[in-house]
Amino acid sequence: MSDVWDGVKNIIGKTAPLLANAIIPGSGGVASGLISNMLGVENDPIKIQDRLLANPDNLLKLKELETKHEERLIELSTENNKVFIQDVQNARTREIEITKSTGKKDYNLYVLAWSVIIGFFVLCWLLMKYPLPEGSNEVVFMLFGGLNAGFATVLSYFFGSSKSSSDKTKLLTK
Fold it and tell me: What is the pLDDT of residues 54-112, one digit of tens each?
């Protein structure tokens, strides 16, 4: 369902970016309630998306809605960003708490990360070395897409912006 909300956000974001940014993936949140109410449909991403695509004038109405509620939408956007940052921080806190309570690192995290990294490079090598059997393109590319997303997540976790946060937390813990 969150990918449908992403589609709604993309449609609205071109005209009313503050309103689009206030939509919470997976649930829609308060902003989706405002949008559905203004459009006269149920608070459902598919119905909202269909109504927006059926009548482009609705995007102008959403821009007016955004202007009317601009201050509150900025607050919602800030809250959404805080939730995202807190989620990243919770992953770091979990790792630190496990190390504190057990005296050792959670090696499952590293095994899973290395499995994704190795799987990504092995699949890249296999795709370059051997031709795909006929009719298996979609399945292989779906697998490759999943591994690609996992690869990006592993890199972000260990080397991304949250890495510096982890390093600071470790220094403060010591």
Answer: 988 888 888 888 888 888 888 877 877 787 777 767 777 777 888 888 888 878 888 99
Range of the domain at 6: 2-75
What six digits make up the tokens of 77? 């956007």
> Is residue 98 included in any domain, yes or no?
no
1-36: per-residue pLDDT in tens?
446 788 888 888 888 888 887 777 666 677 788 888
**Residues 20 and 71 grouped into a single domain:** yes
Domains of the chain: total: 2
In this structure, are 53 and 118 located in the same domain? no
Beta bridge partners of 24: 28
Closest CA to 20 of 33, 9, 28, 31: 9
Distance (Å, whole) CA 162 – CA 159:
7
Query: Does residue 84 fall inside a structural domain?
Result: no
Q: What is the pTM of this model?
A: 0.48
